[in-house]
């Protein structure tokens, strides 16, 4: 038995766990209990964490709600550049909520605020995060950590210098399914990794970022000047550029920064990788020709060289916003002895495991039948003498299926990890180095596509070569 396989079985504890149903219920129950205990932990008055959310759009509300599932967390302020969203924040969280269009009001003037959630468009993540850490706030920054690769090292340095708690918001790295998949991967469940395919396929206008624009949008109700104040190229007010900013490179990061980054965050988390060495991407604007200047179908081929953390492997990433398959997402990690297939948004996985036969095989789709009868007989006799029946049979193992509980939400756990760190100084699961090492290769996909070249990346030092 190989040492990988021994480690794998030892890790599982008993072979009974190899049956899919028992692993599913065992793991889900175990994790559920841990989370329930954590949620019930008593929180004293001094344990209160006061937060503000900057960027009160779709994710601002989602993140705030996830943050508020953690005991002792209180929302005291919100910042946004559209008046309607500030009014909505008061409707949802109470008329007493302090609101502003200038995030500096929250990080500089409000000493009572401990932590900020940054859920703005991508173009503002880095600047607000740096300003907030310097002002002494813990930061939960939405992904991608930066809008430009050139911003990464300065943000990491600020975190290092200020020692403020900082976490990036790729919630799948806190997901119980990803945690379990990582354990199984490290236990050798799929042998030696060699390739990964990961994708998002969508087939609807909202999925392609044509979000609803409010009827009262106007230059009076939107702080357009502030929104584009850090952009090199300035445009006249355009509601599409504001409410559907993802479609424009000036404010968003395209499908690569928006969605590849989820895929690479999960891949780096499971494999322990610091990142790739070579990146190439192609793209097309295939269907959503609504004025956007980023592709709606994009594919990348990314090479990870051999390191002490892992053997060399290849990653192919794809996003398709006009996909006739209706909508799906996966990350399929392939090794020499199995595949970890993670579907959806981190709520489960299946491990399919097969072991290569020791005997090479003879006959069937082979050259054997092209030789004379006498040759064929001699070859088969010789083959049967050399290999036992066991050596000739492919070992197929039962699938291992893991599924998180139906109501599971990885964002809640991601915030629980963040606030644990704010309270107890425990290590965050997705620090600035991890966040940048996931974001930079994705942003390099954009550079590769727009500049039509292969990008070389020094993952250790986090620099374009
Ligand atoms: N982790 C996830 O699963 C996930 C999912 C969706 C979005 N996101 C990320 O969350 C962020 C927000 O996405 P969204 O879909 O909520 O966008 P959105 O357009 O719905 O909301 C963004 C809000 O940010 C505000 N904003 C922009 N610049 C600002 C500034 N300087 N100061 C204050 N407010 C500002 C805008 O007014 C807008 O209301 C993006 O970076 C996105 O990548 C993460």
TrEMBL record:
Occurrences of domain Gfo/Idh/MocA-like oxidoreductase N-terminal (ranges): 49-169
What residues does the GFO/IDH/MocA-like oxidoreductase domain cover? 236-340
Q: Where is the signal peptide?
A: 1-27
User: Annotated Gene Ontology MF terms?
Assistant: nucleotide binding; oxidoreductase activity
Output the Pfam families linked to this UniProt entry. GFO_IDH_MocA, GFO_IDH_MocA_C3
Could you tell me the keywords of this UniProt record? Oxidoreductase, Signal
Protein name, per record: Gfo/Idh/MocA family oxidoreductase
Q: Which organism is it from?
A: Mucilaginibacter psychrotolerans
């Amino acid at each position: 038995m190989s040492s990988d396989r021994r480690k794998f079985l030892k890790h599982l504890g008993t072979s009974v766990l190899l049956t899919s149903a028992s692993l599913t219920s065992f793991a889900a129950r175990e994790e559920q209990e841990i989370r329930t205990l954590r949620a019930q932990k008593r929180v004293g008055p001094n344990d209160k964490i006061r937060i503000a959310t900057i960027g009160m759009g779709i994710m601002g509300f989602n993140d705030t709600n996830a943050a508020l599932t953690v005991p002792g967390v209180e929302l005291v302020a919100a910042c946004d550049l559209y008046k309607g969203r500030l009014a909505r924040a008061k409707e949802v969280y109470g008329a007493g909520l302090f609101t502003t269009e200038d995030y500096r009001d929250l990080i500089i003037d409000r000493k009572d605020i401990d932590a900020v959630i940054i859920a703005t468009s991508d173009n503002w993540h880095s600047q607000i995060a740096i300003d907030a850490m310097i002002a002494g706030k813990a930061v939960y920054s939405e992904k991608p950590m930066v809008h430009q690769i050139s911003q990464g090292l300065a943000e990491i340095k600020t975190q290092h210098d200020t020692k403020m708690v900082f976490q990036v918001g790729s919630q799948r790295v806190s997901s119980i399914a990803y945690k379990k998949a990582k354990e199984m991967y490290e236990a050798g469940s799929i042998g030696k990794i060699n390739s990964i395919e990961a994708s998002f396929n969508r087939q609807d206008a909202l999925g392609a970022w044509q979000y609803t624009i409010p009827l009262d949008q106007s230059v009076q109700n939107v702080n357009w000047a502030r929104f584009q104040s850090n952009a090199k190229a300035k445009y006249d007010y355009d509601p599409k550029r504001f409410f559907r900013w993802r479609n424009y490179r000036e404010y968003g990061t395209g499908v690569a920064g928006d969605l590849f980054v989820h895929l690479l965050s999960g891949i780096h988390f499971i494999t322990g990788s610091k990142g790739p060495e070579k990146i190439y991407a192609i793209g097309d604007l295939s269907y959503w020709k609504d004025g956007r200047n980023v592709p709606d179908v994009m594919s990348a081929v990314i090479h990870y060289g051999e390191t002490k953390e892992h053997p060399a492997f290849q990653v192919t990433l794809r996003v398709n916003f006009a996909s006739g398959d209706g909508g799906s997402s996966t990350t399929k990690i392939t090794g020499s002895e199995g595949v970890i297939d993670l579907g959806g948004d981190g709520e489960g996985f299946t491990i399919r495991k097969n072991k290569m036969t020791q005997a090479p095989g003879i006959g069937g789709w082979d050259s054997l039948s092209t030789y004379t009868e006498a040759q064929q007989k001699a070859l088969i006799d010789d083959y049967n003498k050399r290999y036992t029946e066991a050596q000739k049979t492919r070992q197929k193992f039962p699938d291992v299926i893991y599924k998180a509980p139906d109501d599971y939400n990885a964002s809640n756990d991601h915030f629980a990890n963040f606030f644990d760190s704010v309270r107890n100084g425990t290590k965050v699961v997705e620090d600035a180095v991890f966040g940048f090492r996931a974001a930079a290769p994705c942003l390099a996909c954009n550079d590769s596509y727009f500049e039509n070249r292969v990008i070389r990346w020094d993952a250790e030092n986090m620099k374009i070569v």
